[in-house]
Structures are given as structure tokens and as C-alpha cells.
């Protein structure tokens, strides 16, 4: 069982992660599909080191997970947990998130179609 101090440290990391608009946008983009670091970077005008820092903070807070496949790193929302429940709440009240979540859903559908085409070829 988690102690009070450990819980407070985790929540501090989560709120620190959610305090940043770019990090909330990253979470919205990942809401429906996983994306490579390059796919995430293409949606922002920031340096790669800055993006890496945002991704590290989100991962440290338990909001996202990464998976290295060859030379690419893919990011996805971490499974159901309290941290992502808070992130979902933030997305619901954040006006920017609706359009980003819509884009994420479209990307997920596009990837699904592409996989179907690859399998049938």
C-alpha cells in the first residue's frame, strides 16, 4: 500500500506535468493513438531537447509510457490510473483539447486503415 508521502510526491509530479500547456497538448494528441517522437514533434514549434524534456516529465509523472522500436520511440498514454483520470479531467475543461483529441482520433482511424491495407496486400 502507498504511503501518504509517496502519494503526495506522485500527485506533485502529476500536477507539475499538467501545469504546462504543451504537455496537456501532448496528452490530447496521445488520447486516441500512440505516436512516435517525430510525429509529436511535427505538431509543435519547439526544439527537440525541449520536447524531450516535456516527454520525460510526462513519463516521470506516470502519464505516458514509451516503447523503443528500432530507431524510433513511440509514446502512448499509460493505462488507467489516477494520474490519467486527472489528465482526462484537465482535457475536458481545457478548450484547446477538443480539436487535438479530434485530430488524435482521426490519426488512430488512419493508422487502423493503413494496417488493414498492409495485411490485405
Order of helices and strands: HHEHHEEHH
Main sheet makeup: 3 strands, antiparallel
Radius of gyration: 15 Å
Mean pLDDT: 84
Distance between the termini: 50 Å
**How many helices does DSSP assign?**
6
Q: Describe the global form.
A: globular
Describe this entry's structure for a reader.
By secondary structure, this protein is mainly α. The protein is 64% helix and 12% strand. It has a three-stranded antiparallel beta sheet with strand order 1-3-2. Strand 2 and strand 3 (72-77) form a beta hairpin. Helix 1 packs antiparallel against helix 4 (48-60) and helix 2 packs parallel to helix 6. The longest helix has 24 residues, at 97-120. The model has no long low-confidence stretch (mean pLDDT 84).
Short description, anyone?
64% of the residues lie in helices and 12% in strands. By secondary structure, the protein is mainly alpha-helical.
What descriptors fit this protein?
single chain; 121 residues; mainly alpha
Topology:
Elements: H1 4-18, H2 21-29, E1 35-36, H3 37-41, H4 48-60, E2 64-69, E3 72-77, H5 82-93, H6 97-120
Antiparallel strand pairs: 1-3, 2-3
